[in-house]
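Good morning C.,

I know you're traveling, so I'll keep this short. The sequence:
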Amino acid sequence: MKGSVRYIITRPCLNEGSLRLLKYLDPVFPTSGPATFIDDRAHEHAVTVDRARARVTGLRDLYSAHNLGVNDVLNITLLQDGRYQVECVVKPARPITTPPATARPATPPRPEPQRVVVNATPHVREVRLQRQDGRDPAMRVTVTERATERPEVRADRAPARAPEPAAANPTRPTTPERPAARVTTVTVSEPAPAKPTPSAPALSVAAAPVAVLPRPAAIAPSPAALIDAVDLSDTDALQELARTCGYRFDQPAPGLARLRADLGAHAYTVLIALSEAATHTPTWQDGADYLAVLVNEGERPQGLPRLTREALSAVVEHARLAPLSPIELRGYWNTGSFDLTGADSIAELVSAHLAQRGTFSFVLMTLAQQSAHSVVSVPRLAERLGSGVNTAELHSILETLSRPPFLALTPMSGGQYYLRARVPDMLTELADYAGGIRARLRTPTPA
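The tokens, ready to paste straight into the viewer:
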């Protein structure tokens, strides 16, 4: 196998003295049995590859000898059958910086406003919010209300107006007289420290009478309604998974969602029940390659494979960070329980993708410090990069930059490269090239 693979150490790996055999490590560890890891100091460590448990055990001494911690990296290179070169990369600890404590001026407690009646008429009442310290408030609210009231109940108010003669509107049917309604007026004004300011125009709100209808009797939902009453966010999450990972999504029956991976001879389908009631429908027995019931992390349906909502959300978030395809996800559907443990494994795979992308960006940023038409010395470039990039990765990246569409470097004898143009200019030309290709492409019509 050419090159090396990166493995990011997790806390369970340190506790158990092992590493997990993720999908991208299958070509590196094709068979089970004893193996030997050779570290940077030429020390040999006997390990055991167990593909049945998806573990490589016996790494506790290696972790201890190199003081490895969580998120440190192992660069594993297959030398020959059963012998591996391992480079340990310890990430520098970030200094903990705390912002300087700035003395904040003590804010005096804000006085509570009080409602003070400043004006009253038989139909209008003006109420002002006034602070306890006697100053004008920052906001003045004037409330006037028009309420339904009867003359005989409120004796202190003016008598109700007499009804208009029927001759004024002969076509209107005779209805019981409605009492006058109270009008609510809100007035807001800005504070005025020196002199009072006139209040803003009032906003009138008329309160309409609300009819109270009798509540219908509760009806027990039918089994079909239980299938239909699924959370819309579950369907949205599955559609997002299909969009980001390359599945085709459809719903063959109420309460069922299907993911189809069109991979030719390697095609497969996943039928997902959005509730346990949907597993009793005839479509559930149609013969999909993989079945799963969407449940919460703490639920374990008896005799049914499951997909947890927490794992689904985590995989969707991972797919937005790095490309995931039905090829990487197929093994997880086959486990019978696609939960947060499987999502953690996918997170490590995504971390490896992001680490490779970060390494590529690191090399580009270092090359950007050189001028155009200069010679790049690989040993000196490796010194400037430090321990974050090993030699095999560096050579692979430089070879990629010397091929189309980059063509930024030209290989020379003695392990040197000729830098054709400045890195910013090269990236600009590459963006123009990509824009031209994008303009000539046509969006394919989905089948």
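Safe travels,
E.
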